[in-house]
Amino acid sequence: MSLGMELEKKWYVIHTYSGYENKVKANLERKIHSMGMEDKIFNVIVPVEKETEKRNGKEKVVERKIFPGYVLLEMIVDERSWYIVRNTPGVTGFVGSNTKPVPLTEEEANRILKAMGMDKPTELDVEVGDQVNITSGAFENFVATITEIDYSKSKIKGVVDMFGRETAIEADFDQIEKI
Length: 179
Fold this sequence. Notes:
Layout: E1 10-16, H1 21-34, E2 41-45, E3 48-55, E4 58-65, E5 70-75, H2 79-86, E6 91-94, H3 106-115, E7 131-134, E8 143-150, E9 155-162, E10 165-172, E11 176-178
Antiparallel strand pairs: 1-5, 1-6, 2-5, 3-4, 7-8, 7-11, 8-9, 9-10
């Protein structure tokens, strides 16, 4: 079978047995690691939103699946990655045609991620050693020198000068701006 190969990472939706979403996520993450597919399959997400429920007069925050029976994957589709996902227990198939997975548009993916509070930028125009302004959080209005950039978590680590001492800090990409 020949898939029209996508050489860039995009978001795809897979269908699972209802109630198996988290099990499929765990199985896929284990397979990605054991088969060395971290360079092809990047994120496995069960879309959830937080809701406040009242039970017995007490408020409780619970996670509710936004799309029961579906899991999102950020991946590069090729014969091997398609096969690995397709043959994971609990996966019934990709959304799209049976022969070629259809990626979500960037707008669709961003809308879902935003609903989950995951719409943080994943790229940044700074490097280790650059200075940035901290725009929010505990270190707002401080200038930090970047010591580490973690793109997978959309965070930077850096140091700020506080009372004449260097203090280590961590900030999200959306909490900093390049000087």
